[in-house]
């Protein structure tokens, strides 16, 4: 795909100084897992106890996207997709945890490291003269961020890197914020634009939240339930966001800095998805629809965008802001720039190679079995590979995916299924295959559903189903 330069919400594209970019990526934070409302007709998570005043401040100064999606319902595939502008299906990285054996279908084998052959956001921006930094959770191997365009970084980190950080620096939230602030100041003093990705470790290890924050939610002693811990670590994370925003203001960088905030997938066990169905590890809306807030030059304060966007749209967007020539970008991108949406009060289109959004999870995790999904306009179809059945939903009327329209509108279901299949073929997606050794009479313990239900957990699995790095 060859991308034309977009003229909007970007100082660089207008011939002025190129903007700075701070990209903040939360871990396992659901669409309604903050006190900011992510749709005009849905109350924010404050009613559920979430307190995120700094994200409220960010939203008031920028644009909220009500239909923003993570590229995948789990961690690592979303992260490599954001770095490259390509879909997890195309990248052949669609799951974070190991494959499961003894199931009706065989899961495809994922790559386990980001290849050197892929061009990342950081490599493109560094070549364009940006100082680049990555702090926090990397989780896509390949030698770590330093091998993929980042000047400063925390190394080839995974989940457990942050577990040792407890009160007063839970999962390194405040350490990351301080390192980012110092990098901004050095870059400013050197006269260089900067790109910083803060890949927060929170909401992982919520039990590491500060004692004072836990106590503010009524916790006492060491026996803290997951829900209370999630509320507390979310509040701590919001304070880390606040420290980053304060540093931008203190350094007088606000007028030329884009700030983006999103999550890598829907919520895990301690989060909330409001009216959405499903959660992490599924392609229901609760597993893939995520918060996205953008503030920066040319973005109308307090504005909304209801156009569907996805994580791999960020690479072409940042390239537009940084004036990276289209010829320097990857030939095959799945994303398109959202800069026009930001420049025009949330209106416009995202020009991708294909109009539809496709999500591919040919794995067992989250209780659904291998499945894929497609969204085109307001219509969404989920196809389940074990049973070769599909469900159809009108998201404009049924965001919670509770009314299956597949039998009522079989023509629409067939059209979307055909588009889904064509998209997966065009992406060279890996598909699940029939298991010739599957024994339906085998004990359930040998055909377990992984970490969430049906049998013992792998000794190397995290509670959310992700493998230890």
Give a nutshell description of this structure:
By secondary structure, the protein is of the alpha/beta class. The protein has helices at 53-60, 75-84, 88-91, 121-127, 173-190, 211-216, 226-250, 285-288, 314-321, 339-343, 410-426; strands at residues 20-26, 63-65, 68-69, 105-106, 131-136, 152-153, 194-199, 257-263, 292-295, 303-305, 309-310, 357-361, 371-376, 379-384, 389-394, 433-434. The longest helix has 25 residues, at 226-250.
Strand count: 16
- What is the number of helices? 11
Strand content: 5-15%
For this structure, what is the CATH class of the largest domain? Answer: Alpha Beta
Low-confidence stretches are 1-8, 444-469
Q: Name the CATH homologous superfamily of the largest domain.
A: Alkaline Phosphatase, subunit A
- Reading the helices and strands in chain order gives EHEEHHEHEEHEHHEHEEEHHEEEEHE
Terminal residue distance: 34 Å
Note the quaternary state here. single chain
Shape: globular
Report the radius of gyration as a whole number of Å: 21 Å
Mean pLDDT: 90
Category by helix and strand content:
alpha/beta
Largest sheet: 8 strands, mixed
Number of domains: 2
CATH topology of the largest domain: Alkaline Phosphatase, subunit A
Q: Roughly what percent helix?
A: 10-25%
Query: How would you write the strand order of the largest sheet?
Result: 6-5-7-1-8-9-2-10
Q: Which architecture of the largest domain does the CATH hierarchy give at level 2?
A: 3-Layer(aba) Sandwich
Description:
- By secondary structure, the protein is an alpha/beta fold.
- It folds into two domains: 12-343, Alkaline Phosphatase, subunit A; 357-439, Arylsulfatase, C-terminal domain (2-Layer Sandwich).
- 24% of the residues lie in helices and 15% in strands.
- The protein contains eleven helices and 16 strands.
- It has helices at residues 53-60, 75-84, 88-91, 121-127, 173-190, 211-216, 226-250, 285-288, 314-321, 339-343, 410-426, and strands spanning 20-26, 63-65, 68-69, 105-106, 131-136, 152-153, 194-199, 257-263, 292-295, 303-305, 309-310, 357-361, 371-376, 379-384, 389-394, 433-434.
- Strands 6-5-7-1-8-9-2-10 form an eight-stranded mixed beta sheet, sandwiched between helices.
- A hairpin with a 4-residue loop joins strand 14 and strand 15.
- Helix 1 packs across helix 7 (226-250) and helix 5 (173-190) runs parallel beside helix 7.
- The protein is globular, with a radius of gyration of 21 Å.
- Mean pLDDT is 90; it is low at 1-8 and 444-469.
